[in-house]
Amino acid sequence: MLEPSNNNELPVIPEKRYFTIGEVSELCGVKPHVLRYWEQEFAELSPVKRRGNRRYYQRHEVLMIRQIRSLLYEQGYTIGGARAHLVSDNEDSARARQLIHQMITDLEEVLEVLK
Predict the structure, then answer these.
(1) Domain contains 1
(2) What is the CATH number of the domain that holds 12?
(3) Per the domain annotation, does 71 fall within a domain?
(4) Domain for residue 2, yes or no?
(5) What is the DSSP string of 48-70?
(6) pLDDT tens sequence across 16-68
(7) pTM score of the predicted model
(8) Region label for 15, one of left (φ > 0), alpha (ψ between -120 and 50) or beta (otherwise)
(9) Which residue from 45, 46, 69, 107 has the highest number of Cβ atoms inside 10 Å of its Cβ?
(10) Whole-number pLDDT of residue 7
(11) d(CA 18, CA 5)
């Protein structure tokens, strides 16, 4: 198993649509019971559940799990702190998207004036 400081040494995520909990465990260096616990603590983690409550994670969830792992194991955040950090990242991303959209609109208006 990987040491907590070796997040950069995690395997490359294959080009698949869905991953089982076992695959995600290996890809992220986290045991399956920890993944199930994190699902309860982080609302952003909600794998698809199919037959017999089997979990199937998507690529964006695998990336998020790696981010959570880094926050908890490498950067020393608590569960609550990591949750707050993820929320603030989402808010920052939303603001950035809004700013980009406004800039595009402004540039389109300038282009129309120049025509």
Answers:
(1) no
(2) 1.10.1660.10
(3) yes
(4) no
(5) EEEGGGEEEE-HHHHHHHHHHHI
(6) 999 999 999 999 999 999 999 999 999 889 999 998 889 999 999 999 999 99
(7) 0.70
(8) beta
(9) 69
(10) 53
(11) 27
